[in-house]
Amino acid sequence: MTGVLDDYLVDPRISLLDKTRIQAQVLVPVLRALRAELGKGKADAIVKQALRDWSSQLFAAIGEGVEGSPRRKWATLQGALNDVSAREVEFEIRRQDKEALDIDVTRCRFAEFFRALGEPELGALLICETDVDIASAGEGEVSLDRAQTLMRGAPSCTFRYKFAPRG
Amino acid sequence: MSDEIAIGHLQKRKIEARVLIPFITACREKFGDGPTREAVAATIRGLAAEEGAKWAGSFGGDVAGLRELAETVWAGGGGMDIQVLDQADDRLAFNVTRCRYAEFFKELGLEDLGSLIHCSRDHAMVAGFSDDLELARSQTIMEGASCCDFRFRRKT
Question: pTM for this structure?
Answer without folding.
Answer: 0.86
